[in-house]
Automatic annotation (TrEMBL):
Biological process according to GO: membrane protein proteolysis; signal peptide processing
Residue stretches of biased makeup (Low complexity): 350-360
Keyword terms of this UniProt record: Endoplasmic reticulum, Hydrolase, Membrane, Transmembrane, Transmembrane helix
Family: Belongs to the peptidase A22B family.
GO MF annotations, alphabetized: aspartic endopeptidase activity, intramembrane cleaving
Chain spans, region Disordered: 345-378
The organism of origin for this protein: Lactarius akahatsu
TM region positions: 12-32, 60-79, 85-102, 169-188, 200-224, 244-263, 283-305, 311-329
Main location class: endoplasmic reticulum
Subcellular location: Endoplasmic reticulum membrane
Basic and acidic residues biased stretches: 369-378
The name this protein goes by in its record: Signal peptide peptidase-domain-containing protein
Pfam family, one: Peptidase_A22B
Length: 378
């Protein structure tokens, strides 16, 4: 292969960028609070994802340390135990995780495609509740489409476990990786732009050190054949003759948490303004454009210098600067920097409760506002 930019290489670059961007776009909308219609009179009737884990600034500081510990541990395990055993053990782990993540992602996709109202019209065929002091604290339910989606979503994991080829299928690996990434973005929510800036800055230094300072990250990434990365063939015919292009799952999930925060901030501003029309998304659009620009820059530098590049070296500054510039241009920098997503959720719930009380006073049916439960609806 020549050193120039061939059609095969361009195809791989575009494929990686498109896959990563679509994944972040879908994952971001999956973090928005679910709309509540007039028929939703109890927490058991709401379609919600699992309770998210909100990352604070204190949590963000620990990520580079935890990441370095995990990376170093994998490097030593491969060195002393051999990559075959480590690949086998971790393949089993990721396949088992895929038994949850792929069906959940398929369910989320179906609910998004059909719309929440139409999805809620499907019959519940299974429901499990946990009570505490006569109050529902956990409700797990399954609607009729899930009878097909859940078994279908389990197929990739079983094939991945029992596939005995020299390398794992790229398609299977990507399905598992993207579903795991989607669930990670749904469950991990940073609470503010300050936390996001700390997280991206810390992992910026982490990425630079482990790629440029040592050979550890490149060694681990090339030794492990696991769904911790997305792969794209360097061929317009999807042939593996010239190898594959790879992008670590962390280079999707970590910036994705920041992009999804931008979308939730746009949604919060729209909700507080109580506008009926579709909400504007200036922060979200800016962050998505920044992500695509940063990832494209990574590909260009990698192609020019023929060397692996730490993607967060370009993605972290791009995402942070997109927020700073957009907020500054709109005259909202101080307000946006001080905004807290956790407090915003509480504020929005309070607004909903006030509306319910108002409806009750006017003769409507009040919605219970003092019962909080975790609801999983498949």
């Amino acid at each position: 292969m020549s050193g120039g930019l061939t059609a095969d290489l361009l195809f791989a670059y575009v494929g990686i960028i498109t896959t990563a961007t679509v994944s972040i776009y879908a994952g971001s909308f999956g973090t928005l609070p679910k709309p509540q219609g007039p028929k939703e009179t109890s927490d058991e009737d709401k379609d919600e994802d699992d309770s998210p884990l909100r990352l604070t600034a204190e949590d963000a500081w620990t990520f580079p340390v935890l990441g370095s510990t995990l990376l170093g541990g994998l490097f030593l395990a491969i060195k002393y135990f051999g990559k075959e055993w480590i690949n086998w053990l971790l393949s089993l782990y990721f396949a088992l995780a895929g038994l949850y993540s792929v069906p959940r992602s398929l369910t989320s996709l179906a609910r998004f495609t059909l719309g929440s109202q139409r999805w809620n019209n499907f019959e519940k065929v299974f429901e499990f509740r946990i009570f505490k002091h006569e109050r529902v604290i956990v409700c797990i339910s399954c609607r009729s489409p899930s009878l097909l989606l859940v078994p279908l979503g389990m197929i990739p994991s079983f094939i991945y476990i029992f596939y005995s080829g020299p390398t794992k299928s790229i398609l299977l690996s990507n399905i598992l990786a993207l579903s795991l990434g989607h669930q990670a973005m749904s469950l991990l929510k940073i609470d503010s732009f300050r936390t996001g800036a700390i997280l991206l800055s810390g992992l910026f230094l982490y990425d630079v050190w482990w790629v440029f300072g040592t050979k550890v990250m490149v060694s681990v990434a090339t030794s492990l054949d696991l769904p911790m990365k997305i792969l794209w063939p360097k061929s317009t015919r999807f042939s593996l003759e010239h190898g594959t292009m790879m992008l670590g799952l962390g280079d999707i999930v970590v910036p994705g948490t920041f992009v999804s925060l931008a979308l939730r901030y746009d949604h919060f501003r729209h909700t507080m303004a109580q506008q009926e029309k579709p909400f504007a998304k200036p922060y979200f659009v800016a962050s998505v454009v920044a992500y695509v620009t940063g990832l494209a820059t990574t590909m260009v530098v990698m192609h020019v210098y023929k060397a692996a590049q730490p993607a967060l070296l370009y993605l972290s500054p791009a995402c942070i600067l997109s927020f700073v510039f957009t907020a500054w241009y709109r005259g909202e920098l101080s307000e946006a920097w001080q905004w807290n997503d956790g407090a915003a959720a509480t504020s929005q719930n309070g607004s909903a409760d006030a509306k319910a009380a108002s409806d009750a006073a006017g003769g409507g049916t009040p919605e219970p506002s003092d019962t909080k439960s975790d609801t999983v609806d498949s």
